[in-house]
Design brief:
By secondary structure, this protein is mostly helical. It has helices at residues 2-9, 42-56, 68-82, 84-90, 97-105, 112-119, 123-133, 147-172, 178-202, 209-218, 221-231, 243-263, 268-279, 288-307, 315-322, 328-343. Helix 5 (97-105) packs across helix 8 and helix 7 packs across helix 8. The longest helix is centred in the middle third of the chain and has 26 residues, at 147-172. It is globular, with a radius of gyration of 20 Å.
């Protein structure tokens, strides 16, 4: 199953694309259908290029050398990767309550009431638990008002996901400078969608679904750190519009994501799956979890492009072409992703 899927949706980030990507906000929805009909592995690159054009604020990527902004950004990101101290200044530590709750969730002897008492020590988490329990996704008949009820509705899996969101959202949804103000909302949305899709895809594999969820979520954290780094570059009027920088930005931000996941002491499988996104370009060599995260990345990026009207085709038909001849399970996961996205509006 995954051999064929990996062959058809593996991204071509490490190869020179054949033509500029046609998306552009000023030009209206450009029609991904105009470029996805050709055979081969370019479709993943078209999705990736469209997504990075969106978050970097350019109409389309150009086949050009790195300009002064891109060169400076690449140099700073390279230094950040080599300096743990610099990363710690840009990435806050996890709130102490989150690791404690994660540990409790792994203990079958900890009851729902125990979890509610621990959650009750953090007012922001209490509000988020109740909000999530009342979301359309859970379809409760009556409004949930108590923390104990909300914990019962969400269950252990829902609480795990909520804690992961609570850990990442302050970083992924930050708006500080030009690039983070422009892109962080999209990056947070794509990261949520990637986590959801990875969990769905993992259900049909011998993969821990929560590890898949975490890997999908943490994958995007390096992008925000990279955008923050670009915000610090002054007196440069160039725009980040080259394919070369797209590939460099993608690779370095994934390396940052892997380092942060490791420093936060995430499970080794999660760290490895994120690192593999940056280091393994051959789809045949990707381990199962890395393949799931790769597929989830393309599905989530495509969903963001659909929502931003960068795609002018029927999504159900488009994703089948763009993702290759999808298995029934992957088509089902994309449908679930779209329903999840609607529930978050």
């Amino acid at each position: 199953m995954w051999k064929r899927l990996r062959n058809l949706i593996s991204t071509a980030v490490y190869e020179k694309p054949a033509r500029p990507f046609p998306y552009g906000r000023s030009a209206g929805p450009a029609g991904l259908n105009s470029v996805v009909s050709s055979a081969g592995n370019s479709d993943g690159e078209e999705i990736s290029s469209g997504y990075y054009s969106l978050i970097l604020g350019v109409h389309s990527l150009a086949d050009a050398e790195l300009n002064s902004l891109e060169s400076e950004a690449g140099a700073r990101l390279g230094k950040l990767i080599k300096s743990k101290e610099s990363r710690e200044r840009m990435v806050p530590r996890l709130p102490a309550i989150i690791p404690k709750l994660m540990s409790s969730l792994r203990d079958d002897n900890v009851s729902g009431a125990d979890l509610a008492r621990q959650l009750g020590k953090d007012a922001s988490l209490v509000g988020e638990v109740i909000r999530m329990a009342n979301s359309p996704y859970y379809r409760t008949v009556n409004k949930i008002q108590s923390l104990e009820q909300a914990v019962l509705i969400l269950g252990r899996r829902g609480i795990r996901h909520l804690l992961a969101r609570a850990a990442f959202k302050p970083i992924l949804d930050t708006r500080q400078g030009h690039f983070t103000k422009l892109a962080s909302g999209w990056v947070w949305r794509q990261s949520e969608y990637c986590a959801f899709s990875a969990q769905c895809l993992a259900k049909n594999q011998s993969i821990d679904s929560f590890e898949a969820y975490l890997a999908g979520l943490v994958r995007g954290i390096g992008s925000v750190i990279a955008l923050k780094t670009m915000d610090q570059i002054e007196n440069i009027d160039d725009a980040p519009r080259s394919y070369r920088f797209h590939r460099l930005f993608s690779k370095l931000s994934l390396q940052l994501s892997g380092l942060i996941a490791s420093e936060w002491e995430f499970p080794a499988n999660v760290v490895r799956a994120v690192e593999d996104q940056a280091t393994i370009s051959d789809s045949e060599k990707r381990p199962a979890l890395a393949s799931v995260v790769h597929a989830a990345t393309l599905m989530s990026q495509l969903q963001v492009l659909i929502e931003e009207r960068r795609v002018d085709d029927d999504p159900a038909r488009l994703v089948c072409r763009t993702e290759g001849r999808l298995t029934e399970h992957c088509q089902k996961c994309f449908g679930e992703l779209q329903r999840y996205a609607l529930s978050q509006v």
